[in-house]
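Researcher: For the annotation table, I need structure tokens for Diguanylate cyclase (GGDEF)-like protein. Please keep the output clean. Sequence:
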Amino acid sequence: MAINYTDLLAMLNDVNVSVFYVNKSGEILFHSGEDEAEQKRIGTSIYQYVDDFSEKRLENVIAGKTTQTIGTTDIYMKTNQTSVACFLKYKRDQVNCWLVMIPYPSDYNEMVENVLGTNAELARLFDEKLNLEMELKQKIHELKIASITDPLTKLYNRQYFYEYLFEYLTKDSWSALSIIMIDFNDFKQVNDNYGHKAGDELLIQFAEMIHQHCHMGFRFGGDEFVIISVDHDQSYIKEKLDTISRSFNTQTSIVTLSYGMTFIDQEQRKTINSKADIDYLLKVADEQMYRNKRQVKKNERKKQRGSKGYVNKR
């Protein structure tokens, strides 16, 4: 049985399918609607009947800005005060364009809102995950720093000394490396006479001097410190240590410093393969430090140890 043109248009109208034929400027040349209001659309612009979101998309289709001559997309048709989501099938010829608009089911907008809501929740959870990962990385970094840092002086600790030195020995950017051990003389008198808080302040002040004057410093424990110096000869290091010692003497008239050092060059580094090898270097510096300590005690005049003996000028 043949279906006439009028029946076809009526069927399209019954199922709310709209067919438009428009030119490249968007002027409606044909519309499948049967009633008077629908027919009044002929001669007007198709862009009047879509929302702002869809206008640019539809313009790309009609003006041939898309590479496909036949394709599909989504647009929103304006009806009264609302917009209806439609599936758009288009076919473009050399001059004009056919547009077939099929409304989505009535619950489509709700489905879209649910999907958008789900996407928004997923985006929120993703952002929350990223924030938690960043917080976790920060906490791990803070724990790492705490594990290798002396909590009082904020210098690195003995544990990190080995890690740092092993890593530095693998580099080729240096020619000479010095390990200097420093120990306080008569530090016990400060703790005994003025309390551990005064002793802690003195340790902190000395650590700040290391930060200021040295390449890298470590607190091994108590009043024992290690400094690493890179590419400086013995006379330069001694000059730096004398500067630190003079500065330190402005903080106390009781405690003095003793030090010893050992040196590594690029050839010697090949023999350092274990913690025991580094411990041997520390032993050499430690023995020299104690020889220096005995000499300091032998040469220094007996100092007055009274209530005015310890002076903290902070």
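Researcher: And a one-line annotation?
Model: The chain has two domains: 5-105, 156-299.
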